[in-house]
Amino acid sequence: VELSEFDISYVPRGAIKSQVLADFVLELTNPPNESKPRPWTLSVDDSSNLRGSGAGVVLEGPDGVLIEQSLRFAFKASNNQAEYEALIAGMKLAKEMEV
User: Fold this and answer.
1) How would residue 48 be classed by pLDDT, with cut points 50, 70 and 90?
2) Across the strands, what pairs with 72?
3) Which of 14, 59, 79, 95 is the least buried, fewest Cβ under 10 Å from its Cβ?
4) Hey, which residues does 58 pair with through a beta bridge?
5) In a domain, 7, yes or no
6) What confidence score (pLDDT) does residue 34 get?
7) 30 within a domain of the structure (yes/no)
8) Is position 13 within any domain?
9) Residue 41, helix vs strand vs coil
């Protein structure tokens, strides 16, 4: 096709840089409303005396959710052992609650 008789010339289009395109898309999209998951808190309290060993587990969640569990061990345990057993029980409780 002869374009010179119409005084038309072909000018190739410049390349669009990928970062410019990415910035443009980012500018036009709304970020999703991602709320940060609110943490749960696991507290353990243990006791060991001549009568036996026991522990308490408290799982505290957002909006005032409070789950308490008391444990009585059928074996003699030191305070450290009772605390570890309570921690394991609390972790199992958290897993069951899908926290």
Assistant:
1) low
2) 54
3) 14
4) 43, 68
5) no
6) 67
7) no
8) no
9) strand
Q: Which tokens belong to 60?
A: 């505290």
Residue type, 45: D
Distance CA 67, CA 45 (A): 14
Q: What average pLDDT score do residues 51-71 get?
A: 85
pLDDT for residue 81: 79
Domains identified in the chain, total number: 1
Domain span at 74:
41-96
Residue 1 — pLDDT band, cuts 50, 70, 90? Answer: low
Query: Are the beta carbons of 55 and 89 closer than 8 angstroms?
Result: yes
Residue 67 identity (one-letter amino acid)? I
Whole-number Å distance between alpha carbons of 29 and 21: 13
Residue 21 included in any domain? no
Query: What is the rounded distance in angstroms from the CA atom of residue 30 to the CA atom of residue 7?
Result: 46
